[in-house]
Every structure is written in structure tokens, then in C-alpha cells.
Design goal:
Elements: E1 8-11, H1 19-29, E2 33-38, E3 53-57, H2 63-77, E4 82-85, H3 100-110, H4 112-128, E5 132-135, H5 149-169, E6 177-179
Helix pairs in contact: 2-4, 3-5
């Protein structure tokens, strides 16, 4: 099958053992070309020799890293059809005692990291008038737990951001931003 017949899916947070890694495998099994990203290529070493995967180092907390990964992907593959914002970090502890830098790191990854990628990829998708962005939230937003206040707050903010962007772009696109169920296309 030719590259232009396959959907190009960029997924953040594809380190081994996590949701992103499993999603990368599932999209590849559906005959998609997967741009698997993580802060370290070594964490995705089992994808290395598989032609269904294009591996990229990507730290979503860095605007420069986001721009580099997108430009490299677009240069090599020509387009991005689907983005899955999956990268995330936990922040464990009683909210009143967690050091503020740890909470800032959680928001910088879980919320601002997704927004960095959204802002970087939307011009490409808008110019093509097609594309999907899926933001991975958390059930803890519906049932908060005492030791995950910063994580839950960052995911609740991501849900609100996703809903807002979805409404904003609805008149111009075919649902470019979604949250909720992952449907492998």
C-alpha cells in the first residue's frame, strides 16, 4: 500500500508499557503509518525496525521540540491526519503539600503540552480542511482521588480546553478536536 493511502497518525507519549504504546500498535494494526513519539527513542526500541512506525523524540513541554518533530514529520511524510495527545505525567501527594514546581511540571506536560501540539498542527490541518485531534483525559476528572489533585486538575483543564476548541472549530471543520472514546480509523 502506498504512503498516500495510509493515514498518518502522530501519537505522543509512546514509551513502552503505556497507553500511547498500545495505541501505536493498534493504529499500526489498522494499516496506519504511526509517528510514535516519546522523550527518549530508547523507550520505543521495539518499534525501531518496523516500517509501520516513524520514531521521533518529542518533549511536549518544549515548543522547540514540538516544532522540530512536526516539521520533520511533515518533511518526511507530507501530512498528519490524526494527532493523539497522550503524553502525561502523574503528580502524587496531598495537594496542599506537593511542591509548586511539581504541579507546574504536571500542567506543563498534561495541559500545555497538548496545547503546544494543537497550536502547531492546526494550521496544517486547517489548510487541508481535514484532520483529527484526540486528547486523552482521565476518569479521575469524574471521580477525583485524594492523592492525585494536581493530575486531576490538569486533566479537567484539558477536558475544558478540548470542549472549547471543539466548539470554536466546529463551523470550520469536521470535528477537528475530540475527546472521549478512541475510535481506530
Amino acid at each position: 500500500m502506498d504512503l498516500y493511502e495510509k493515514r498518518v497518525v502522530l501519537i505522543t507519549g509512546c514509551s513502552g508499557g503505556g497507553i500511547g504504546h498500545a495505541l501505536a500498535r493498534a493504529f499500526a494494526a489498522k494499516n496506519c503509518l504511526v509517528v510514535a513519539t516519546a522523550r527518549s527513542l530508547a523507550s520505543m526500541s521495539d518499534f525501531q525496525d518496523d516500517p509501520r512506525f516513524f520514531l521521533q523524540e518529542l518533549d511536549v513541554s518544549s515548543g522547540e521540540s514540538v516544532r522540530h518533530a512536526l516539521s520533520t514529520t511533515l518533511e518526511k511524510l507530507g501530512r498528519i491526519d490524526i494527532v493523539v495527545n497522550n503524553a502525561g505525567v502523574q503528580c502524587i501527594g496531598p495537594l496542599a503539600e506537593v511542591p509548586l514546581p511539581a504541579i507546574e511540571h504536571t500542567f506543563n506536560t498534561n495541559l500545555y503540552g497538548a496545547l503546544r501540539l494543537i497550536q502547531a498542527v492546526v494550521p496544517h490541518m486547517a489548510s487541508r480542511k481535514k484532520g483529527k485531534i484526540v486528547n486523552i483525559g482521565s476518569v479521575t476528572v469524574l471521580a477525583p482521588v485524594p492523592w492525585a489533585g494536581a493530575y486531576t486538575a490538569s486533566k479537567a483543564a484539558l477536558h475544558a480546553l478540548t470542549d472549547t476548541l471543539s466548539e470554536l472549530w466546529k463551523p470550520f471543520t469536521d470535528g477537528i478536536v475530540e475527546r472521549g472514546e478512541i475510535v481506530l480509523v
